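Holo prediction. Input below; ligand is GDP-alpha-D-glucose.
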Amino acid sequence: MTLPNAANQRLVIVSNRLPVVLSKGADGSWQSKPGSGGLVTALAPVLRSRGGLWIGWPGTVKEDEVELEPLLASATEDAGYTLVPVELTAEEQDKFYLGFSNEIIWPLFHDLQSFCRFEPSFWECYEDVNEAFAQVIAEQTRPDDYVWVQDYHLMNVAQELRKQEVERQTSFFLHIPFPPPDIFLKLPWRAQVLEGLLEYSLVGFQAHRDLQNFTLCVQALLKDARIQQDGEVVLVERGGRTTRLGFFPIGIDFNEFAEHAVSKEVADAAWSLREALPNRQLVLGVDRLDYTKGIPQRLEAFRQAVARHQDLHGKITFVQVVIPSRTDIREYADLKTEIERLVGEINGQFTTPGWVPIHYLFRSLDRTELLSYYRSSEIALVTPLKDGMNLVAKEYCASSIETGVLILSEFAGAAPQMEVGALLVNPYDVNGVADAIYQAWAMPEAERRTRLAALRQIVREQDIFWWVNSFLQSGGGRAG
Ligand code: GDG
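Structure of the complex:
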């Protein structure tokens, strides 16, 4: 099949969730608002200019009996492109989303196989839901459309399209890491997942490590695959079909962050924050509640820093923001308990009149609040145990005006891009992270400026629009 490359080729984005927020008002009626976030911001202009569709789950289950059509029609009108729902039942949502996606693929792909629940019915449901997505794609798209599928919930969609004998140019981007063979091989459905991914014409990863791991897994499991390197791209030929593999580190809308960070509303909020916490440096952590983010290890590192350096007392405050997420999975509820125990213990150990070492927030922040924390914090502590990319690290650099210091896990997908200015740490090495906290706290201003300038440059150059363009160009499409 030839790859169409016309500027007017229609783009179809497929993701687990539609970029729309449906909410139920006090009177029981439903309302819709277009979603926000980097991916939507980057894709919306492309979708509008070429004409496009976004296919995904709307966030309600069939049992809610919501009349989706008028709701999505009004969201579509606001967005400027069409939103197409894939409706799921509560059971499908449970087994496909919470089950296969979040209790198997999520932990396994983050190298945490002991968190996996390899329940066979989860896989069956995953196949069924991917088939349902493929059916909607088949009904709603044309043969010359460019279909770009997002993330680990939908690895089988191209294969399901093929089973339905629907020919489409399909590409896939994995937002989370891809694990090395010794971990991936534990997956009972390992060959099916690899074969499913190789049905796409292009598979994109966040970092070189993920591309390399995937290639090693194909080599280990699919003996009939022929692998060739072509510069930074890997070509896998199997059964007469060739799949391109590449890595495309996702970025953020740098200008939007940088401009909003200097707005009056953010400056006012930042000023109030600094007034409440004067004469000290703020260290910031912002994470979804997730065991991959390394929050307990980070709290231990902060404890070590404060225990070993008396001069930090009263002169540093760690603000850890945890955004509620997936609390209906037991591991997440346990993690929350563990974080709260540690915060209480460390504060109990070191608090003095006028100084509480850790401020802990368990809630979402609105955008102005989030940016005011980014802007006010002298240090950001971004120490995931493993992460596809980690956008918080990039958002912090875009929003920090002159002297922010980024401490970053070497296991974040962002590390290769950001080693130019960040202090890289091993998140499991509590003493090493404690040393980095002290080094950042004591860092001379000139060094802070030089490091941040290098970081801002890379985040500005390799932003979200750069990411969309590089992916679409590599896949034969054009950003339009
Ligand atoms: C997956 C991969 C990859 C967080 N709290 C609030 C808030 N946020 C926003 C941040 C940031 C996003 O959520 C979190 O992004 P991350 O990249 O850190 O993490 P995941 O959600 O795990 O995302 C990841 C990403 O996909 C993209 O490919 O980088 O590795 O796991 O944008 O700003 N936003 C607001 N209030 C909050 O309280 N407004």
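The first strand starts at residue 11 and ends at 17. That is the main takeaway for now.
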